[in-house]
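Lecture notes, structural biology module. Today: joint structure prediction for complexes of two components.
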Amino acid sequence: MRIDQQATVEQISAQGELGRRIRDMGLTPGTAIKVVGRAPLKDPVAIRLMGFTLTLRNNEADHIQVAVQE
Amino acid sequence: MTIALMGNPNSGKTTLFNLLTGGRQHVGNYSGVTVEKREGTLKADDMTWQVVDLPGTYSLTAYTEDEVVARDFLVRNRPDGAVTVLDATNLERSLYLVVQLLELGVPVVVALNMMDEVRKNGTTIATNQLARLLDVPVVETVARTGEGRSDLLGAARKSLDSGEVRRPHLTVSYGHDIEEALTEMVPLIREQAFLTDLYPARWTAIKYLENDEDVMAKGARAGAPHDQLLAIVDRVAAHLQTTLNTYPEAIIADSRYGYITSLLKQGVLTRNPDRESRARFSDNLDRILTNSVFGPAIMLGVIYGMFQATFVLGEIPMGWLESFFGWLGNSASAMIPDGLLQSLVVSGIIDGVGGVLGFVPLIMVMFFLLSFLEDSGYMARMAYMLDRVFRAFGLHGSSVMPMIVSGGIPGGCAVPGVMAARTLRSPKEKIATILVAPFMSCGAKVPVFLLLAAAFFPGSGAQALFWITVAGWAAALVVARVLRSTVLKGEATPFVMELPPYRMPTLRGMCIHTWERAWQYIKKAGTVILAISILLWAAMTFPGLPSERVAAFEAERSQIETSSVMTDEAREQALLELDNRQSGESLRNSVAGRIGTALEPVTEWAGFDWRTNIALVGGFAAKEVIVSTLGTAYSLGEVDPEEAEPLSARLASEPGWSPWTAAALIAFVMLYAPCFVTVVTIARELSWGWASFSVVMNTVLAFAVAVGINAMG
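The predicted structure, tokenised, for the full assembly:
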């Protein structure tokens, strides 16, 4: 996803600690997210959801399937 | 009555805690873990409450130490209730924790904090409606200004202290498949009273479905329906996998959020989409502060500025303390007659404790600035920007601060550096960071480097220091990588971290935080460190010279004193030389000297003779001691590390020394065992096991490298 692109979460395929941390932060199916930035080395990525900003590493974000809104 | 404070990180929980308890608080550690335990007393009207500030968590799972501590406290200590602090600008996520608390059956009072920002954003929250739907008291607060304090106390008193506390019964519906499993599991748990002394039956069942390791381990020990429950869980999990391609824990989390969303839709939350001013302000700031060009540049500036400020500001009170202990030492010398007692008081106790307390101003300034960076939200951005680099070495973005403070810019100190690692929430990364931080060029090692550079690489002091600093970083990162693939093996802990909006920290919060850290350090200085100072003093003093040697020195002395051919000046010079020779010889004869001599056959490999060995043994007390001990060992008297030219000239002309020996010694000093103040700090932050590991590992590594360098010469 590019910066400023919006999307809706479809599925979280991570299990265990990573899966639970992602879900605990409110990334559950149906949540609207927006990419707000990337770190200078392009990893991690920062996303906005429900009024707060969350950052996660690219390989962690790979477990989140989204439907991108154009 | 005891109440627990719960809430997400960055929800203003600690600010509220400070507001409730004022200065009456106490910080300790939970047994066995490094999570801080913060307790305070709240006195209002006629009542006295114990308030426990539990670590900030997003959830009540059992993945992080913080969460386990919070949950165990609620279950074991049974506080009379929990005040949950919510960032009201972030209601969905904050309620996730509240829902879990209610499921656990903990009586809850909700504090909707940061209401000022909510109003500014144009959002409205129907507090009464929320209270009615959740069936718990909800109070609006602004912890920074103190708004809502009395309302909160009133509500807590009414609902928690009324004698007939209602345990809440919140039931979230988890959908057909999970509910079916629950109706099977709950009766099993009830009938056999399985863990019911600790948890509500439905909660235990949900935790089994969530695959909660902590609860399942307790269940396995309790026996009976454990296996039956596992069988049900496996069945549901398999069913969900084939029909919906998902996991029970995912459905449970989704349902909780679903419950919260529907709750908020029932007239609780009305957003004004045009006026998310705070978020917009933070976003604009982030566009500059985390920009791929300006971001790193500004970060370097911030780090450098903080460093300068610490050492410029810290130097002033440090100088006062130094003069005070100097004065104390002189007065003690004047009052106590020459001899062992004087030496013990002056060189052992006053110098030892003075050296340690001398760090206090530095620690205070450093932590004041660190808590500013942390509370303002900038620290999270630093971790965000640097994570990619540190992750390559098995560390975490947040490892940067401890390493810089320890001397990533020469002149730091590993003691506050190790303490700064507390902000790291990932256990393995935290241990690795703490273990490698002492490789950095702390302020006490720099004079050693400069001395050796001046003696053997004349005119290249600055350049040498630069390369030594680079080598320190390289060693730290490489060793971290090695540790993370051996003793600290394991997957990287998920980074998933909130970037909190930028906020102006409260002065009060920063002061309390700073004082806490300083006080913990001072307490240590008074106990363990005093004992070790005395021990090291004894090792460098006893046993004294045999009496015939003392007599020989005395004879020589009186010969000089009575000599008629010398001028006064020459006589004084001769006496000083004699004194220095005597202290050199007596040092060699002491326990430390004997250890140094005994080690010679081993340290020869690295090119170190007994004199260097003594200095290195002394350096374990404090690296500052290395230069002055070398001076004594070379019979030059105590050398002031700031003015070490005579020593440096002496070393350069010693037959046993070559530039390679100097390089080997530089490497050894850079890498070997941290000074004991740091070791004590590591033990406090991690454990004595890790502290000893650090001493042994660093010394072995340092020796190996020194031998390698010496062999090249």
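Point to remember: The domain at 6-69 of chain A is CATH 2.30.30.90 (SH3 type barrels.).
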